[in-house]
Amino acid sequence: MPRTNDDVAAALDELARLTKVDEQDPNSFRVRAYERAARAVESLSTDVTDMSASALAKVSGIGKSTAAKIRQFVDDGHIDKLESLREKYPPGQLQLLQVPGLGPKMLGLLDEVLGVRDLDGLRGAIADGSFADLPGLGDKTAENLAKAIERMHLASKTSRRPVAEVLPVAERLVADLADLDAVEEVAWAGSLRRFRETIGDVDLLATLADGADAEDVMAAFRDHDLAAEVVGSGTTKTSIVTRDGLSVDLRVVPPASFGAALVYFTGSKAHNIALRQRAIERGWKLSEYDLADAESGEVVAGATEEEVYAALDLAWVTPELREDVGEVQRAAEDTLPERVEVAHLRGDLHVHTDWSGDGRETLDAMVAALVERGLDYAAITDHAEDLRINGISREGMLEQRRVLRALEESRGDIRLFHGTELNIGVDGSLDYDQDFLDRFDFCVASVHSHFTRPVAEQTERLVTAIRNPAVNVIGHLTGRKLGRRPGIELDLEPVFAACVETGTALEMNAALPRLDASVDVVRAGIEAGVTFVISTDSHAIRELDRARHGAAQARRAGLAPDGIANTRPTADFEDWVASVRSGG
Question: Are 559 and 423 a contacting pair, CB within 8 Å?
């Protein structure tokens, strides 16, 4: 997607969030209009810079008023309505919307009656009882909110944000800094580079182009549209807080130190201690500036990460693994798992189209995009009938199968599996009867409801679905949404055992709000011998690029390509599908 489109979509999403608060209605006409327009802009292949307001208004999902706002953003670099709402609602107040159960109306009530406009104020109001005294609330609501704050780790001064919220901000900042003539190289580090599920703050590192002035870079960073507050600024480090309350530090380092700085600011504390110990054993000192002789100060390495690791007699460790989970020892032994890359993936096994209610692309367009990304096969898995609103009836599935077969034959450049995403009922039952299920080429089965059942019930529910011969993959294992909804709780041992017995795979859902199964589950599954797949769960073409998140998740878990079913060539993959359907 063109860069300007990314910026416009982000601005419209922010406008929708602020309008929710302003109108105290998450489903108001304006909120839904801005959200629809953001998705429409995301789906455009044309750069909005080249489109007039009238042309934009003709795009499905973009109204005349919103088209004018888009043009204002393109022409003037801002949207008047967005600027006025930013002034009205500070970042601290918007952070309250991260608390599950706290909606726009309650946000307005807190502000109007108690003057509460940030998380500390909310915690204080809960503690002193004034929150429970608000009309229509009470002690139970206060208790639930207090538990939600604790569960989401929002009460800590080191509160963390879901990676889905942080990564787009970092990507935009890095892209804009990279465009500066004064910048030679720029990257993010920290827990974001390790691809943690939640992020505390963002660390950016940059080097200057020859003859460039660091102040030019810092000024551009301070003046960035995302910056709401400058906490501190100098020639080597500037810190800002973004409009939604995220802390971001930019450090400018010499080119000769860039690798050492990346190592220092990327690794976890324990990983860095392990590296420093190896340096000490060799009479060296490892810092954010370089790896150098402890006595003479002579530099051993520093310009690249690879130089630093090699000097310490280590294979380069992929950033996602730098958590001191045995990776340093394995690097010393040169036994690190092969690094999973998007190029390893030969197929996408969880793809939606506009045949189901929440898909935004035609079958033809989605298949063309899959081919464009170089995939050899794909499973089209629109929602099954038990998912209200979005599901497809038996008759609809039969018609889609006919259309898919004709498309596959006419194209001749991709193997298409006609599949579905089934709903796992509370008792493990699935949509459709068994005979109808068996006629699908490929089935993903997922939990979409009943998230609070006891562990034993949820475990039996999953095991029952796994044992159904029509099921090839369990999708987003727990159903979690990071920062919004905890997943179901399971006893993993019987789930893994059923997967190994039947050959059924567990999905690593690459959607950033999910990243489900979690890294801990994948690590345990590797030990148990479970097969995994990486799927994008795409509902729009641009979401196919989520594959990179799935690859990063696999690297973090230490999963090698041979443990992922959809890295296999088409013929081998078809054999695996047939094996699962025959009972493993």
Answer: no
For the question of whether the overall pTM of this predicted structure is more than 0.90, the answer is: no
Sort 553 into a burial class: Cβ within 10 Å, 0-12 / 13-18 / 19+: buried
> Which token pair is 346?
């030969």
pLDDT for 426-458, tens place per residue? 999 999 999 999 999 999 999 999 998 999 999
pLDDT at 152 over 70: no
What span, in angstroms and rounded, lies between the C-alpha atoms of 562 and 88?
53
CATH superfamily of the 264-333 domain: DNA polymerase, thumb domain (3.30.210.10)
CA distance 250 to 235: 10
Q: Distance between CA 279 and CA 277 in Å, rounded? A: 5
Tokens for 106?
């309650």
CB 236 within 8 A of CB 251: yes
Burial group, residue 530, by CB count within 10 angstroms (0-12, 13-18, 19+):
buried
* Angle subtended at Cα 74 by Cα 68 and Cα 76, rounded to the nearest 5 degrees: 90
CATH architecture of 3-89: Orthogonal Bundle (1.10)
Reference 418, options 393, 399, 391, 445; nearest CA is: 399
The set of residues, in sequence order, having a beta carbon less than 8 Å from that of 329 and lying 6+ positions away, is none
